[in-house]
């Protein structure tokens, strides 16, 4: 929450607060309209003739409520767009700073999913979750304080089971976060495979290998279906039990209020006011289902966004070195991938003189790609050093290093321009 508020610009934070104030006035207008209606009914029962006054008040409240709604909607969306813009800007800036090795293990589809879907999801934090939820609970707090002053026994009955309902929801939320993370990861993996499938279609058709990726896509879809099914079942179970415990408060208010009215502790009119206005009090607690779903999606998306914005960067030299020539030297180099149990390279030394051509030959997994990746500084070596023209690659600026090396990537999808090809 602190990071998101920090990400908002000062103008964005002002719009966020304005949205909360607007929705608070909107919900208070609803409470005022209910109370005005009750006052009009009581006046009619007592034989009063001031209905036109109540009608004018209701019209005025309706106009005020509409204006507050328009204002709040505008402010919340502007604050949400402010957040999305700066998160996306931060992600793109970080992507430009990350070493190329990051992209060999992070597929394009996954990054695309984060930039578009996950970043857009964060708009719900400000635009739909915090503004409405905070305003809801501000109004509920005001109503509760007013009710406690008006008749504290009924106020206690009205909130009797709410602490238990909220405690149960918090417990369910912790379990649901793990399920939602699994679902989000499965969705990102599925989206990534679909992107790879479409981008590699020319190669797949040319070599008749589409069946292999078809099977991978089917497995990915099945994993997503299974994960989302588990998350949906858990969500339905937790929210149903939460709703049951929460609604017990209303049952306690009705039954307890009738008993208090029966024994003359409270009058029936006070009881009716509590029952009718309590609907406004319970609104935010009933809406917690929607807020909860938004929260789970946003937390999951936020964690995946952090996988980019907080990904470690390779340190850049303060005073960059300049290679004297093109000689390449590996001096007792060892390297292990973070996800691997065994080193990819161990105590490797070699020298490629300037102006010569060298080929790395070996079986799959022998370390050929790892050697070239370390030379390009996609990663830094675990032990030893790599020098070009006498300069350690870690002391050469990354842009200067890559500017002087031509690369043809191993994982490439070829696309042919049919018209140009036909002219050759």
Straight-line N-to-C gap? 59 Å
Give the integer mean of the pLDDT values.
82
The SS-based structural class is mainly alpha
Tally of separate helices: 15
Order of helices and strands: HHHHHHHHHHHHEEHEEHH
Strand arrangement, largest sheet? 2-1-3-4
* E-strand count: 4
Looking at this protein, list some descriptive labels.
4 strands, four-stranded antiparallel beta sheet, mainly alpha, disordered C terminus, elongated, 424 residues
Give a description of the structure.
The chain has 424 residues and is mainly alpha-helical. Helices cover 71% and strands 6% of the residues. It has 15 helices and 4 strands. The chain has helices spanning 2-7, 10-45, 51-97, 101-105, 108-121, 123-150, 152-158, 162-199, 201-207, 210-262, 268-286, 288-309, 368-375, 398-403, 418-423; strands at 328-335, 345-352, 383-388, 391-392. Strands 2-1-3-4 form a 4-stranded antiparallel beta sheet, covered by helices on one side. The model is unreliable at 413-424 (pLDDT under 50).
Provide a compact summary of the structure.
The chain has 15 helices and four strands. The chain has 424 residues and is mainly α.
Topology (elements, then pairings):
Elements: H1 2-7, H2 10-45, H3 51-97, H4 101-105, H5 108-121, H6 123-150, H7 152-158, H8 162-199, H9 201-207, H10 210-262, H11 268-286, H12 288-309, E1 328-335, E2 345-352, H13 368-375, E3 383-388, E4 391-392, H14 398-403, H15 418-423
Antiparallel strand pairs: 1-2, 1-3, 3-4
